[in-house]
């Protein structure tokens, strides 16, 4: 016979679970606040120091296939004092944006082989764009203008300029022209990467053709003709 569980015991168990959940949630929030907003100081002097607060290393299956870099100009404005105090800032600084292809998603279903032409076709995932890296430490120009630029206005200008630079770099990296260039570089990198083990196995005459989702969408369910390069096949079917 099953033992009878009293309602008080059930309520106590639920209360304990809720307390544990609340304690864990509070501890997580406190760690997040401490990591992001608490100044780390030396124990003896109380002076703020430069130090790694947290470090997390995780595995990744993404292959870097291209990188866009250059110099950008970002501008921002700040208005205070009921519109009387306007300040502007112009900054030039280096930037870079990386492009990746997730190799982990290329399984057996993404590979097809033509024995007649000795061609391996790889249906690769599309290129992904990483978050832009703005090198604010490498600024080559900083111009701030205004009748009076307060400390708060200067901080706001710096934050806005950084946000504008991030947006502008990402827009450039995601433009159709840049994405097309990144896909061509990714195609060459993946073909070279996949051809290496085939050549090591004595299959040096194998051709590797890499396709991306936008190209496969034009096939309309037809099998890709691996006897010709993708650009030539698409050109013949237009």
Automatic annotation (TrEMBL):
Residues 219-238 are annotated as: Disordered. Keywords: Membrane, Transmembrane, Transmembrane helix. InterPro entries: DUF4230. The chain crosses the membrane at residues 12-30. The keyword Transmembrane helix applies. This is DUF4230 domain-containing protein. It comes from Sphingomonas hankookensis.
């Amino acid at each position: 016979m099953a033992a009878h569980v009293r309602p008080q015991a059930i309520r106590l168990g639920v209360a304990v679970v809720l307390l544990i959940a609340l304690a864990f949630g509070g501890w997580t929030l406190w760690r997040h606040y401490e990591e992001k907003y608490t100044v780390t100081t030396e124990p003896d002097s109380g002076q703020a120091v430069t130090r790694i607060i947290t470090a997390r290393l995780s595995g990744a299956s993404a292959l870097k296939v291209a990188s866009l870099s250059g110099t950008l100009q970002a501008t921002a404005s700040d208005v205070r004092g009921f519109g009387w105090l306007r300040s502007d800032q112009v900054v030039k600084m280096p930037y870079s944006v990386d492009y990746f292809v997730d190799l982990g998603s290329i399984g057996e279903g993404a590979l097809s082989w033509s024995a007649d032409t000795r061609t391996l076709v790889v249906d690769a995932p599309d290129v992904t764009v990483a978050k832009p890296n703005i090198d604010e430490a490498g600024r080559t120009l900083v111009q701030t203008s205004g009748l009076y630029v307060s400390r708060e206005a200067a901080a706001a200008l710096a934050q806005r300029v950084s946000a504008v630079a991030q947006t502008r770099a990402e827009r450039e990296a995601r433009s159709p022209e840049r994405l097309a260039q990144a896909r061509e570089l990714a195609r060459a990198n993946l073909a070279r990467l996949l051809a290496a083990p085939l050549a090591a196995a004595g299959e040096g005459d194998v051709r590797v053709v890499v396709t991306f989702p936008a190209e496969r969408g034009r096939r309309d369910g037809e099998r890709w003709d691996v006897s010709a390069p993708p650009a030539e096949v698409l050109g013949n079917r237009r």
